[in-house]
Amino acid sequence: MDQHPFDDTATDALLDGKVSPAQAPEGLQHVAALIHLAQAPATTDRAAERQVVSQMGAIVRGGGSGVAASRFAAHRARLATVAAVAGFVVLSGGAVAAAAGALPNPVQRVVASGFSNVGISMPTPTTGAGPTTTVAPPTTTRHAAATLAGLCVAYRAASKNPTAAAHQARATAFVRLAEAARAHHESVAAYCTHLLAARRPAHHAAPPTTSRPPTSVPGKDRGEGRPKEPSGTHHPSGPPPPGEGHGGHDPASDGHHGGRGPTTIPPSHGGSSHGDDGGHTSGSGGGSSGHTSGPGHDSSGPSGPSGPSGHH
Amino acid sequence: MKPADLGAALRLAGTGDEQAIAALYRALQPALLRYLRHEAPDAAEDLASETWLGAAQGLATFEGGIDAFRAFLFTIARRRVADHYRTTARRPRLVPLQGEPNGSRAAESAEVVVDRLSDQEAVEALLANLAPDQAEVLLLRVVGGLNVDQVAQILGRNPGAVRMLQHRALQKLQKIPTGP
Q1: Contact: A60, B21; criterion CB under 8 Å
Q2: Residues of chain A under the 50 pLDDT cut
Q3: What pLDDT digit, counting tens, does each position of A122-161 carry?
Q4: Do A42 and B25 touch (CB under 8 A)?
Q5: Is the CB of B30 inside 8 Å of chain A's CB atoms?
Q6: Residue of A nearest to B170 (CA)
Q7: Interface contact B143, partner A, CB < 8 A
Q8: Which of A75, A170, A204, B75 is most buried (most C-beta within 10 Å)?
Q9: Which tens digit of pLDDT belongs to each residue from A225-256?
Q10: Is A139 helix (H, G, I), strand (E, B) or coil?
């Protein structure tokens, strides 16, 4: 049964909404009414309109995907921020920490290598006495002594630069270095000369088997904080190298150093990472970009539609 | 807004004029949303925005009148729908009308029933009992406002096939007095 009496023109008129329900043929009145309703004018959501129109304007004026461009710019800005923060950390606190040998092993190695390229000596994880070479829990005294040696390295490096030296003089860490030198009745330069000279032989010595916390003021308890050496050798002058093994006598292990740190220190190699490492890790904080699908992958030409893929 | 005005707006929109773009948006967005609400009810608004942003990329170099731009817009929309279902790995579904069963409506006149429907319910009522290819042709013809040639181009069929589909659709609707 073919009730459909329309030709192409009449069908087009019906589907275009040009036929009112009253004019529609028998059985198609409701279709005409539905078509009219389906084509009724409607208002748009003004908030969505503003947002879309603004983005479209940006895209058209920019000659490309404004959304993609803005996402890329935001991502680039985030990267620049992270790089700037990282650079600041490296140039300020990072330099002090590196000089002290207090960075995590891999970081310390890279920083030391980088500074060595410009003629500045920094302790490396294999040669330095930084806290990362031991498995002992962090102690204030150990860290302080290791820091003093590192500060001396940084002090020498910065002394060639008046601006850096001026900054250095105000830095809290270098105030501690000055206090340590004063306690030893020496200038900072002389103190550092002695301190670093005393450390040098230790680099060639066998790795320490035991270690103990050094004193906060180097030189008060000589013989401590160094690797075990053959009997008869000692340091005639200057403070002992902090943060290294000692000759076997360990007052701390006797419990006489109440409240000064651990009573026993495990061997300095082959242990777990140092607890201080966590304090030197700087989070980059670079968030991930939510990669949502952008509008920019239409292959249809602007002059008209062509060949869409079906989905039914 | 008249088609001539929309044609002028289209040319201005190609320069990035936001007032002209807004005029196009207000003229075409309702139809676009009805189309997308039928094809992808759960993502219609998002897909509409993506469609407009996709269209914006070709706006500066677009050549043609408002009818061509309408066809261009629905071409992008149809691709967005396909992408949407490809991404979500779901098939489009037909949304039945909520409300009274057909039997209780049979006694009412067609116009009374239609008067109670919203514009989107009218779209769904019109297409509910049609085969998918018939429904898609009518959707693009009625809601999209496209002519047979444009629909044929979008669907990748020849115009004769599109005409045949719309005739069969109308025959089927003629046998179903109240639509849904």
Answers
A1: yes
A2: 1-2, 66-76, 89, 118, 127-141, 202-312
A3: 566 554 444 433 344 444 445 555 567 777 777 777 776 6
A4: no
A5: yes
A6: A4
A7: yes
A8: B75
A9: 343 433 433 443 433 333 333 333 333 333 33
A10: coil
For chain B, give every domain's residue range. 1-93, 109-180
The amino acid that residue B165 corresponds to is L
Nearest-CB residue to B170 (from A11, A37, A49):
A11
- Enumerate the residues of chain B whose CB falls inside 8 A of the CB of residue A35: 122, 126, 142
Is B165 in contact with B133 (CB distance < 8 Å)? yes
CATH 1.10.10.10 fits B109-180, yes or no: yes
Cα distance between residue B119 and residue A81, in whole Å: 50
Q: What angle do CA A271, A275, A278 make, to 5 degrees?
A: 125
Give pLDDT, residue A236: 38
Shortest distance, CA A78 to any CA of chain B (angstroms): 25
CB contact under 8 A, A63 and B76: no
Q: Which pLDDT score is estimated for B53? A: 96
Q: Which CATH class is domain B1-93?
A: mainly alpha
Give one word for B172, left, alpha or beta, with left for phi > 0 and alpha for psi -120 to 50: alpha
Q: Is the pLDDT of residue B146 over 80?
A: yes
Q: What value does the CA radius of gyration of chain A take, rounded to a whole number of Å?
A: 37
Which residues on A lie below 8 Å from B148 (Cβ)? Answer: 12
CB within 8 Å of A191: residues ≥ 6 apart: A152, A177, A180, A181, A184, A239
CA B178 to chain centre: 21
This prediction's pTM: 0.49
pLDDT of residue B85: 92
A16, closest residue in chain B (CA to CA):
B142
pLDDT band at B5 (very low <50, low <70, confident <90, very high): confident
Q: Which of B58, B154, B178 sits opposite A30 (nearest CB)?
A: B178
